[in-house]
């Protein structure tokens, strides 16, 4: 009878899930999984840091809505992924991290890379974390991992495979691979609550709809638009919800949220946590009726009391609401016009800086130049502080999943991993990264991975020679003379770092040179860095962030 080992079993299960690429940094404890991947035709992309492998795997999940996989070696390989796992957890992203581990046969004897408690370490930031105890149980554990990661509120799982289990051999015939081990069904909202919510929405005078990450995961953009059009309500989006509705849609709004929240009488949240991003709900009109839809019932009523809380898949629940409201004509022309007016005013105020010729370069001018390169076939990765915040106000995002940022964990350093994922999933799409100079330093070395795998992406570094978003707050709170730990070198040439790794570099100090430099960067056909020196104290831009304690 044919004998196979645990690595073959892992690879076959991945193949069965439609995983065509895995992300890793090598180690003896896991190398037979690679061997299995070769047999199954699964591409192995090796990064220069396990954190990047983790972010790349999350990026793969976000772009495919499958469960991305990172394979990492025992001990430090696993601990290096903790930040990526935590980031995915906060984003409700499915993710499977498979960690090597010292053999069970030498447990407690001080084996190489043996540390206690990796499974426990991962537990609070995963939906499930476990050790696989027998070789022949590998397929069952993987089936359970995919079932947990890809149902309910999606999220990461961690599986540790001790090396004697992973390298153990079994008769192929003794280990049939499980099939039909998870459902793709999606829950409906409670019918009575849908009716109640529909009545509130239909009677609203100043309705507001806010969609978030859950809208992306349930692919609910079209359902959201349909309801919003029926209700003639403004649409606001945050985090991974961005792009699920085109910014061209006449009801899409992004600059008037404060007014809308403050004046609304009925507000509907779909797949959006009412957390710090929404000021814990504190800015919502206290008299407003609040309706919330979430796949995770623990989000319903958190921080802000709700009137109707609908546990369910956002796409289904939104469709149910639209059906329940029926074909009435509900107009809120004055409300929409007022908000649109507010939107236009902000855009007009910005014009001056968007077209500024100032030297040093105004960051809004930089964002405006970057925007010229973003079309529907461009994936934009954001990794940095203020420069990313500003760019999100300027860059068009009209496609679901088109913008990839760290989400509520605010993880600096996600960028190179997300770029690797974007090119792995969509080799022909343009990938453009907006980088802070500080953020570049965290995982910039993975430009090497982009070079090795021939993944041309362009990173534009908004180089203010500081950890700007923190420095601004520091100055406000403690004064100029007590700024500490937030300044970076004037001389750092991130463009040359990328050149040295085999990529293309551009260095820009004048506004008119930005566009041709980015053009050359794309034309080079290599991973590229356009290092743009920008104003440290730009006019008209407040910077920093409000720390809501
Ligand atoms: C891993 C990590 N460490 C620290 C922080 C805190 N932090 C938030 S924004 C920021 C500054 C970012 O600086 P940079 O990337 O240069 O962007 P800028 O704000 O200067 O545009 C820091 C340090 C974080 N969010 N993530
Ligand atoms: Mg900076």
Computed CA radius of gyration, to the nearest angstrom: 24 Å
- Give me the secondary-structure category: alpha/beta
Can you list the ligands bound to this structure? thiamine diphosphate, magnesium ion
Task: Describe the sheet with the most strands.
Answer: 6 strands, parallel
Number of strands: 19
Lateral strand order in the biggest sheet: 3-2-4-5-7-6
Identify the overall geometry.
globular
Give the % helix. 25-40%
Considering the protein shown, what is the CATH homologous superfamily of the largest domain?
Thiamin diphosphate (ThDP)-binding fold, Pyr/PP domains
Strand content: 15-25%
Please provide a brief summary of the model:
The chain has 549 residues and is of the alpha/beta class. It folds into three domains: 3-174, Thiamin diphosphate (ThDP)-binding fold, Pyr/PP domains (Rossmann fold), CATH 3.40.50.970; 191-341, Rossmann fold (3-Layer(aba) Sandwich); 355-533, Rossmann fold.
